[in-house]
């Protein structure tokens, strides 16, 4: 697997479900114990698989930018519904 960007969508029964960025139509499912570090739902990451171990690099800047966009959208929706 080459380096590809994904977003962690959810964790279910010990598996992490990632959606390929940016379309988020393709997904990969990785056993949490096969990952080299813990991550949180919503994190944008790059993933590289080597010998059955998934090396994950958290893209902190992209993750923070996306979270800020979501907060802004949620604020606008809240104000609209008041």
Automatic annotation (TrEMBL):
This is DUF3006 domain-containing protein. It comes from the Bacteria. The lineage of its organism: Bacteria, Bacillati, Bacillota, Bacilli, Bacillales. It comes from Lysinibacillus xylanilyticus. Pfam families: DUF3006.
